[in-house]
Amino acid sequence: MKTLYVELGERSYPIHIGPGLLRRTDLLQPAIHGRQVMIVTNETIAPLYLESTQQGLAGFEVRSVILPDGEQYKNLDTLNRIFDALLEHRFNRKCTLVALGGGVIGDLAGFAAASYQRGVDFIQIPTTLLAQVDSSVGGKTGVNHRLGKNMIGAFHQPNCVLADTDTLSTLDDRQLAAGLAEIIKYGLIRDADFFNWLEQNMDLLTARDTDALIFAVARSCLNKAEVVAADERESGQRALLNLGHTFGHAIETGMGYGAWLHGEAIATGMLLAAQLSARQGWLEPGEVDRIGHLLARAGLPTRIPGDMSTQQFLDLMAVDKKVMDSGLRLVLLEAIGAAVVTDAFDPEQLRATLDAAHEE
Amino acid sequence: MKTLYVELGERSYPIHIGPGLLRRTDLLQPAIHGRQVMIVTNETIAPLYLESTQQGLAGFEVRSVILPDGEQYKNLDTLNRIFDALLEHRFNRKCTLVALGGGVIGDLAGFAAASYQRGVDFIQIPTTLLAQVDSSVGGKTGVNHRLGKNMIGAFHQPNCVLADTDTLSTLDDRQLAAGLAEIIKYGLIRDADFFNWLEQNMDLLTARDTDALIFAVARSCLNKAEVVAADERESGQRALLNLGHTFGHAIETGMGYGAWLHGEAIATGMLLAAQLSARQGWLEPGEVDRIGHLLARAGLPTRIPGDMSTQQFLDLMAVDKKVMDSGLRLVLLEAIGAAVVTDAFDPEQLRATLDAAHEE
């Protein structure tokens, strides 16, 4: 097991990474300050891991709420089901919510914890690779609105994160690849050594080797934690974490939510960012090839869907949340391991990049 | 006009109190950092004050959302109507929400501002006396759940509060009295000089004299601001602000929400707290009489409704939110101007106090 700490002053917390953590009462107990614990999970995860988690919480008053599985349920109505459960069991302000599941469960349970009685304690047990490397660090919680993703939410830090690598054994290959996309992202934006390591160890990761997964999850969380600690409220450096996201959101919206996994869309988006960076002369063509090759080895798509036109893609990029704030700014690459946020790119090069990147 | 400042470090903000403030662009402008402003108000207030408020916001992109009026609409569904309006008009993270109305509007708009895109700017324009002295200081926002009041919410500080005393001219007498109950509360818990002033000036207040209202609102906000600045997250001193509330919530719940106004229930609750304090020997009987007399002059009820039994009252006190946390603790008085939070009272004296306080 590896443990790292997200340093946020009073609200600092540990991330434990390794196999067999669900039952580790010794890790959970220090993060719980009252007696009442509500496990928030979904219909897919509950049969697999709810019982083990309950065992790890022996001695507390443990209740659970089992939500439907899927991004389409990440809304205020589902959030209210968590409040129903908390109030039906008369949970008080000292209670703790445990998010057991992927990113959707983490976002829902985290926002419920942020808002229940104006804020209660919260533990993350992410069960997907994506959630282990992404939503377990940073404190972003929230739900979707029919007019936009993640439009309603709060910053709320967990007391503790348990990333149990055993739970990755039940992930399907697409979900695993989606997590690898985020892992590759950390190498691209600020950690060239890690990118090199990923090139050497991608086969171990896709084979779900425990030690390789622990290293990759820990190194990713460390990178994200460093960024977040420097910039908790997302203004400067934190924006680099959005590498590939403006491109990726266009694919997710254009194809309909759920057709592409978020990580898949981000993978293609990161390669588009690299290709645009190369057209601007900021990145070597050989580096673009390395990025595309690594994404492909992880099992990720790297081309724009054939039924999305370049103009549709550009239109969708223009309505992205981050664009609404400040015009079209993109995260681009000056090297593998060095990203910048910029609007100093040539729109014609952007169009040419998109034209060239469509599926055959 | 008087201006006082709530000191909360980075999140400090001014409260301006006086007549004719709605149109004061010079006061609003420094509190707005983007271009987009959403006025959140209700069907009662909009015909009276929406146009003036829009005039005060000339030069900004101003939209408004008009909600139904009443505590029964303080829920997640109504909250979502604010998000609908924000997203339909593509409001970005630099937008500002303006709460124009009483406490319900302030709580709804404040929670919407806390959660929209994980937090945007917020201005309070409270139009009831109660909201001017209570919800404009402290940063509490939120909505009700069918199983409990104010169970879902956030702490979110406004950038600025405009308490326009002209808006009090359209309040009905019961609403005015409900605000006076909270004002008297500040005298009781920590400001004996203010209590004396209220005894000398109650007739001016019920006659809605502008200067008297400005003084009373400012002195109340100052008292609350001092408490909140010392204890932003409600643990110690802030609990004193709940004088009369455990008793009052029992009346509100027992009579059905809306039958008694919150301030009316708190008034009776404060007198019950004073009577229990006297039975414990902590308060002089003459002081209890002064409190009862002042509440009556303000037009407030001071007896328990005849159709609530003492046992029903005790049962309802036991399910109050604050009781769920830590057993039955009450705010009691050691003198006018000196309150304490305590569980060191004799339950038989509590019962006797309730028995004696029923309507004839």
Automatic annotation (TrEMBL), chains A, B:
Keywords: Amino-acid biosynthesis, Aromatic amino acid biosynthesis, Cobalt, Cytoplasm, Lyase, Metal-binding, NAD, Nucleotide-binding, Zinc. Residues 179-323 form the 3-dehydroquinate synthase C-terminal domain. GO terms for biological process: amino acid biosynthetic process; aromatic amino acid family biosynthetic process; chorismate biosynthetic process. It is found in: Cytoplasm. NAD(+) binds at residues 69-74, 103-107, 127-128, 140, 149, 167-170. The keyword Aminoacyl-tRNA synthetase does not apply. Pathway: Metabolic intermediate biosynthesis; chorismate biosynthesis; chorismate from D-erythrose 4-phosphate and phosphoenolpyruvate: step 2/7. Zn(2+) binds at E182, H245, H262. It comes from the Bacteria. It is an enzyme of class 4 (lyase). InterPro entries: Dehydroquinate_synthase, DHQ_synth_AroB, DHQ_synth_fam, DHQS/DOIS_N, DHQS_C. SUPFAM superfamilies: Dehydroquinate synthase-like. GO terms for molecular function: 3-dehydroquinate synthase activity; metal ion binding; nucleotide binding. Its EC number is 4.2.3.4. It catalyses: 7-phospho-2-dehydro-3-deoxy-D-arabino-heptonate = 3-dehydroquinate + phosphate. GO terms for cellular component: cytoplasm. Catalyzes the conversion of 3-deoxy-D-arabino-heptulosonate 7-phosphate (DAHP) to dehydroquinate (DHQ). Belongs to the sugar phosphate cyclases superfamily. Dehydroquinate synthase family. PANTHER family: 3-DEHYDROQUINATE SYNTHASE, 3-DEHYDROQUINATE SYNTHASE, CHLOROPLASTIC. This is 3-dehydroquinate synthase. It comes from Thiohalobacter thiocyanaticus.
